């Protein structure tokens, strides 16, 4: 079935388009972008997302790595748009919100960067309006509808304009980690070795239930009895609410820190990554595992075989590369190389779209 607007809008996917050159000057750690001519401002990046934390984080991470000035638009949630996205249909732009439809009419060039299914509709509309479009995650439609598609290897998407990456995009690099160590300096005062524990929860693809949680904790407590140290245990939106009071009570003693919601204060997740001597992650979240693997700490995934489908393929790929290991009772250190895919992908985007 063909939908209205399903033509390959925008012409050649990657050729024939050059953004104006830029000169970048660093002054006190700040970048001043200077156009060579007053009439040739640098291109603007336009970050589009549906408000989901993971989608927003990936789109912003790529825009930041490209180092272009820009703005961010959170798309409105409309039932019809969510149902039909990423297919283009009459009146679609209005359903995504006034902010989006107004910016869509602004002159280019803009580089629209979207993540998620709803954003795939928005980036298609942006491309049809004459802007360049980069879509993150498999849009479930022919990639030729976008200038570039950035998709995880485990999605299995192929195409001349597809850039594959291992895991997900994120901001974690050496500078980010240094900044988080400074911001969360108190975590550095916890007894070592410090173990960051990143907890998700059960999903359709991963059977990480209460029993799996108890196995994870039993192994952690064996390690604490053997080596001492402390835990920084962070829940997520996926963590079942019933787990929070149990874990707060279990690790209320001095030397540990837990976080599950705003009642626990500021989320120390970034500080846990930055200060961790080792990291234990539940097997349900590609984003959390990817960010853990961007640090220099060994990463242990709790019962990775509980994951199925694409998540399981992702974890198996990391295991084959030696970047993660299954959590055992003994969390012995092993040599790692931080996985930094965001910078590599940004370089490919610059090359393919002529941003240099």
Core attributes:
356 residues; alpha/beta; Rossmann fold; 2 domains; 6-stranded parallel sheet; 14 strands; 33% helix
What is the structure about, briefly put?
This protein is of the alpha/beta class.
Strand and helix order: EEEHEHHHEHEEEHEHEHEHEHEHEH
Helix tally equals 12
- For this structure, the CATH topology of the largest domain is Rossmann fold
Describe the biggest sheet?
A: 6 strands, parallel
**CATH structural class of the largest domain:** Alpha Beta
Structural class determined from secondary elements: alpha/beta
CATH architecture assignment name of the largest domain: 3-Layer(aba) Sandwich
Number of strands: 14
**Any idea what the shape is?**
elongated
Ends apart, CA distance between termini: 39 Å
Which stretches of 5+ consecutive residues score pLDDT under 50? Answer: 1-40
Percent helix range? 25-40%
Mean pLDDT: 89
Beta-strand percentage range: 15-25%
* Rg of Cα set: 22 Å
User: In the residues, how many domains can be counted?
Assistant: 2
Strand arrangement across the biggest beta sheet? 4-3-5-6-7-8
Q: How would the blueprint of this fold be written?
A:
Layout: E1 23-27, E2 30-34, E3 44-49, H1 53-66, E4 70-74, H2 79-84, H3 92-95, H4 98-104, E5 110-115, H5 117-128, E6 132-136, E7 148-152, E8 162-165, H6 174-183, E9 194-198, H7 210-227, E10 230-234, H8 243-250, E11 257-259, H9 269-275, E12 278-281, H10 286-293, E13 299-301, H11 309-320, E14 324-326, H12 341-353
Parallel strand pairs: 3-4, 3-5, 5-6, 6-7, 7-8, 9-10, 9-12, 10-11, 12-13, 13-14
Antiparallel strand pairs: 1-2
């Amino acid at each position: 079935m063909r939908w209205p607007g399903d033509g390959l809008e925008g012409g050649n996917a990657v050729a024939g388009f050059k953004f104006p050159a830029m000169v970048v000057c660093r002054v006190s750690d700040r970048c001043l972008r200077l156009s060579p001519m007053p009439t040739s401002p640098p291109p603007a990046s336009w970050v589009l997302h549906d408000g989901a934390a993971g989608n927003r984080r990936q789109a912003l991470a790529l825009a930041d790595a490209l180092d272009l000035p820009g703005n961010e638009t959170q798309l409105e949630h409309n039932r019809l748009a969510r149902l039909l996205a990423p297919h283009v249909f009459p009146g679609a732009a209005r359903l995504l919100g006034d902010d989006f439809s107004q910016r869509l009419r602004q002159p280019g060039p803009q580089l629209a960067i979207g993540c998620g299914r709803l954003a795939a509709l928005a980036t298609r509309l942006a491309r049809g309006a004459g802007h360049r479009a980069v879509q993150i995650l498999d849009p479930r439609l022919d990639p030729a509808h976008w200038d570039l598609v950035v998709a995880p290897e485990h999605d299995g998407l192929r195409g001349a304009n597809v850039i594959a990456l291992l895991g997900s995009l994120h901001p974690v690099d050496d500078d980010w980690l240094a900044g988080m160590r400074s911001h969360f300096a108190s975590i550095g005062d916890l007894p070592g070795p410090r173990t960051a524990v990143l907890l998700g929860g059960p999903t359709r693809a991963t059977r990480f239930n209460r029993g799996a949680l108890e196995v994870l904790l039993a192994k952690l407590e064996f390690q604490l009895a053997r080596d001492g140290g402390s835990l920084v245990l962070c829940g997520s939106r996926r963590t079942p609410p019933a787990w929070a009071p149990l874990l707060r009570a279990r690790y209320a003693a001095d030397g540990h820190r837990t976080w599950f919601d705003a009642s626990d204060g500021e989320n120390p997740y970034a500080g846990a990554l930055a200060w961790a001597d080792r990291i234990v992650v539940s097997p349900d979240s590609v984003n959390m595992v990817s960010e853990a693997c961007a640090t220099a700490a060994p990463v242990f995934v709790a019962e990775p075989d509980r994951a199925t489908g694409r998540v399981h393929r992702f974890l198996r790929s990391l295991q084959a590369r030696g970047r993660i290991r299954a959590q055992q009772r003994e969390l012995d250190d092993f040599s790692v190389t931080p996985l930094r895919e965001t910078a590599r992908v940004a370089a490919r985007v610059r090359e393919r779209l002529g941003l240099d």
